[in-house]
Each structure stands twice: as structure tokens, then as C-alpha cells.
Predict the 3D structure of the following.
Amino acid sequence: MTQNGKNGLSAMQTPSVVSKQEWETAHAQMLVKEKAHTRAHDALAAERRRMPWMAVKKTYTFEGPNGKVSLLDLFQGRRQLIVYRAFFEPGVHGWPEHACIGCSMVADQVSHLSHLHARDTTLVFASRAPQADIARLKAHMGWGHIPWVTITDSFDADFGVDEWHGHNAFIRDGDRIFRTYFINNRGDEAMGTVWSYLDLTALGRQEEWEDSPQGYPQERPYKWWNWNESYVAGAAPDPKWVEVSDAGEAAFRNKDAGTQP
């Protein structure tokens, strides 16, 4: 028995054990399939960027740490907004000490938001719990970096998240707001990285290799990356990082494209 009380590997129907050469052959075969999977994911994201938009004509009001805020306010001046409906309120398992276990796991996965902000995108969590309870929960669980507002009207019902968790993506043109995408269920569970969030949005990762409609913002991949404390709007990329990332890209291009995921 192992320390956690479960049977060891001997009780499992495990794959065969092979030599280094056989393992590398099997790995190369799997990489071909992973490459196809990655390309299919890219094609799906490209199609998502061509989804029609839905104008948001209704006014929604949320309660934030400093008082009432509108849906437009949630953008925090950025072009795109992602709102995650987290279940933390009376009647939810865990209340009042905890939010829903699944929603809490999603919150634990949220990466550093500075990278999303560098792509002109804001992430906000929304629940029906009062702000005092949300503040207490964030402090207890280490989620202080996540903006989290209180739903006060029909926002959750209107956007398909009144009974189940989900992410809604929005874009704005001045004061006009449009809903661009929605994801829930298993796709929702995989959210949390910079890339999963950006692939959900209307503008995508905003990099030159992406298949996006004409006129969409795009720049060279890697070059916009930075330390989370070092982003400066409009600043030129770090020249040393440009050199390093260029060398890395060249090395990958020199390898067999069919073996790289």
C-alpha cells in the first residue's frame, strides 16, 4: 500500500516499459497528433474571432468595493472584459466560509492579471454575496488580485450564469458594449491561463501568426511579454528579450515542424 492508502502501480494496468529509442519513437508519433490538435485549436479560436457580436442595450449595476459600478466601469478603461460568474452566496455549499468548491478551484487557477492587462483585457469575478463577505473570502483564500463585484440585478440570468458557472466575454467601442462569446461546463474548467482567456476574446492573442479579420491589432509573438511588474503602455520591447526570443524562434523553425506541438 502507498502512503495515501491506495494500491501501488502493481494494481494498475500500466503501459509497457521500453527502451529510450522506443520511447522517443512513441513520443514523436504522439507529437504529430498534438500538433494537429494545436492547429485545430488555433482554427477554432480564429472562427471564434469571427462570431457575430450582440449589443448589450440593458444597463447593469454591480456593487464594488467603493460603491456602485456599471458594466462599462468593469472594463477599467480597457477594450475587452471577461466576467466569471462565481457562486458565493447564501444557499451555495460552503457559505459563508467558502465559495462553491468548483468556483474556488477556478479562482485558484487565475494567473497574474498584468499579462491580460497588457492585451487591453480585464478579468472580473461576479457573485451575489455582499462586498463585505467577498472581501473576507478574498483575504482568506489569497485572491486579493482578482477584482470581484456583487451582482444586484438580472445580469446572471441574462447571460446564462444564474444556475451554473461560466465566463462571458465583452468588447466595447467607446460606451457601446457587445457580448462576443460565452463558455461554461468543461471548457470553463480549463480557464485560468493568459492564453485560455485571450483565446476566448474577440481580439485573441493579438499576435501576427493568428488568423484574424483585417485590421485587428497584431504584433510579433513573444515581444510584448514582460515581467509582471514591468509593463509600460506603449513602451518598446526589451531589446535583450527581443534578441533571446528571436533566437528561440529561429531554433524552433529549424526543427522538423511535424514534431513540434
In short: The domain at 54-200 is CATH 3.40.30.10 (Glutaredoxin).
